[in-house]
Amino acid sequence: MEDSRHRPKWLFVRVAFYLLVVAVVIVLRGPALRTGGTGFRFSTESDTVRTITLAGVELAPELMPRIISDYEWAFPELHVNGIEGGTARALEAMANQRAQVGLLYRKPNRDERAIMMSAVKDSVLCFPIALGGIEILAQDGTGPDSLTADDLRRALRGEAVPAFDTVWASDPNDGLWDALRTCLGLARNAPNPPRVKFLKDEKQVVDAVLADPRGIGITSTLSLPDTVVAEGVHAVAIRADKGGAAAMPEYEAIAYGSYPLYHYLYAASLANGSVRGAMFVTHLTSDRGQRQIERAGFLPARQTARAIVITDHPLGEKSGSKEDQ
């Protein structure tokens, strides 16, 4: 049996050894090791980064400033710097490490995922944060008051549609054109017919419709939220393939699916990228973030009746979905 008189001596040796180990770690790590109320911890990006760069704010120009303002109020030590650019530009900014978070009208396709993996050796995570309607505009007096989803599908395939001649759309890099093709069940890589004319942005689309009595325009309720976006132009009611009455791109009709043309606004970040960026995306998808979107007058993705997919294929992984074609 061990002599109990030796136990205090061994206890003292053990305590001294542990204290020596802690002292060595402090000396070796220096300023990288910080003290806090709960003990020691290593400094992280969260301790040093004060600015989050968000690319793609022009996709939701009325919504995002409100969200950013609320986020900066909740976290006054942080600043969210919004930069312009649509879906393609947001992904480009993330690939070149100029932005930690990107806003997208569609998920990255297979080629974009491969480019991102090559550039930063990481995968992109995408989460829907808001739901928008793909709005069809026509000139008052001469343009159609209603169309079917199949009318648009046939026009995008190059077939003649009696109600209109020209389709005006914004820069396909913003992602809305691809979102419309996906919504109509068309492959995104199919050639566009001559009747489709692309312009710089949706404001130019409105101007083109105002000047073209036989044209229709493609816009988003997220970027141009007013149903009547200009005097002399109106939103066209759309009837779904399943039949029923044509519906306008209004809040409830988009949420419950009676208006058939819709798209999500996605927030994207790198899987192993910025801690601050991941925190901001988490906020956007949280109950609080979704309530902020609703209070701003927009449809939160988590509170709609439509089916939602909140995960994405890792970059470089092949997918057989239409959205990746």
Would you tell me the structural class of the helices and strands? Answer: alpha/beta
End-to-end Cα distance: 76 Å
Share of helix, binned: 25-40%
* General shape: elongated
CATH architecture of the largest domain: 3-Layer(aba) Sandwich
The low-pLDDT segments are 24-44, 308-325
State the order of secondary-structure elements, H for helix, E for strand.
HEEHEHEHEHEEHEHEHEEEHEHHE
What is the CATH class designation of the largest domain? Alpha Beta
Give the full name of the CATH homologous superfamily of the largest domain.
Periplasmic binding protein-like II
Structurally, how many domains make up the residues?
Answer: 2
Q: Key features?
A:
single chain, 325 residues, alpha/beta, D-Maltodextrin-Binding Protein, domain 2, 2 domains, ten-stranded mixed beta sheet, two-stranded antiparallel sheet, 11 helices, 34% helix, disordered C terminus
Summarize the structure.
This protein has 325 residues and is α/β, with parallel strands linked by helices. The protein is built from 11 helices and 14 strands.
Descriptive overview:
With 325 residues, this protein is of the alpha/beta class. The chain folds into two domains: 46-130 and 264-324, Periplasmic binding protein-like II (D-Maltodextrin-Binding Protein, domain 2); 132-262, D-Maltodextrin-Binding Protein, domain 2. Helix content is 34%, strand content 22%. Helix 7 (176-183) links the parallel strand 8 (166-170) and strand 9 (196-199).
Write the layout of secondary structure elements.
Layout: H1 7-29, E1 33-36, E2 39-42, H2 45-48, E3 51-55, H3 63-74, E4 79-83, H4 87-95, E5 101-104, H5 110-120, E6 124-139, E7 146-148, H6 149-156, E8 166-170, H7 176-183, E9 196-199, H8 202-211, E10 215-220, E11 233-235, E12 237-239, H9 251-256, E13 262-270, H10 275-285, H11 287-295, E14 299-300
Parallel strand pairs: 3-4, 3-5, 7-12, 8-9, 8-10
Antiparallel strand pairs: 1-2, 5-13, 6-10, 6-11, 6-13, 6-14
